[in-house]
Amino acid sequence: MRILDVGCGINKKKGAIGIDRNPASRADVICDLDHFPYPFHDSSFDALQAVHVIEHVSDVVRSMEEFHRLVRAGGEVFIVTPHYTDFSSFCDPTHRWHLNSFSLRYFGEDHGGFGYYSPVKFREILVRVKLLALWKWLGFELLVNRSPRFRRFWEYYLCYIVRGKVIEWRLAVLK
């Protein structure tokens, strides 16, 4: 299985091909992640992971389009980013974007009428929000992740009290 680890840093996924802009990283390929296309052919990978990367790129939509180009039909894209209510979302001056668990919906069926931003499509396999330790320990994390409907209620009304930590998306590439 060919995996691309975008923005791998020093913790490149074992067995993956890593790309990063930092020469001090453990990347196999050094390139600017804001310049497209990346130096790989279309559908070169079975999976792609971007762990704590999407919040740093200059253009989220264009980056998602590039991820879509690089992964074969039916392949998976795994994205992790801080939830916008977490302290870490704002304490890093290199973070350009502060996302919530519905931020990537524009690439799926439930695009909220905004599907015209991009022609690429993904199917959500999993969206998971991790909460700060106290809220996880009290069981709120299970409730938040129980259904998209409850997660939406939490995002609208509760997330500034019951704070999020990290969002994980597992997306299938539709071509």
Instruction: Tell me, rounded to a whole number, the average pLDDT.
Output: 96
Order of helices and strands: EEEEHEHEHHHE
Largest sheet: 7 strands, mixed
Envelope shape: globular
Radius of gyration: 16 Å
What is the spatial order of strands in the main beta sheet? 3-2-1-4-5-7-6
User: Segments where pLDDT lies below 50 for 5+ residues?
Assistant: none
The total domain count is 1
CATH topology type:
Rossmann fold
Helix segment tally: 5
Strand content: 25-35%
Topology, number of strands: 7
Class, according to the CATH hierarchy? Alpha Beta
- How would you name the oligomeric state of the polypeptide chains in this document? single chain
Question: Which class best fits the helix and strand makeup?
Answer: alpha/beta
CATH second-level architecture = 3-Layer(aba) Sandwich
Question: Approximately how much helix is present in the residues?
Answer: 10-25%
CATH superfamily: Vaccinia Virus protein VP39
What is the CA-CA span between the terminal residues?
19 Å
Describe the structure.
The chain is an alpha/beta fold and 175 residues long. The chain has one domain (3-82, 94-129, 168-174): Rossmann fold (3-Layer(aba) Sandwich), CATH 3.40.50.150. It contains five helices and seven strands. Strands 3-2-1-4-5-7-6 form a seven-stranded mixed sheet. The protein starts with a strand and ends with a strand.
Ordered list of secondary-structure elements with their pairings:
Layout: E1 3-6, E2 17-20, E3 29-30, E4 45-51, H1 60-70, E5 71-82, H2 87-91, E6 121-131, H3 133-137, H4 140-144, H5 148-158, E7 164-174
Parallel strand pairs: 1-2, 1-4, 2-3, 4-5
Antiparallel strand pairs: 5-7, 6-7
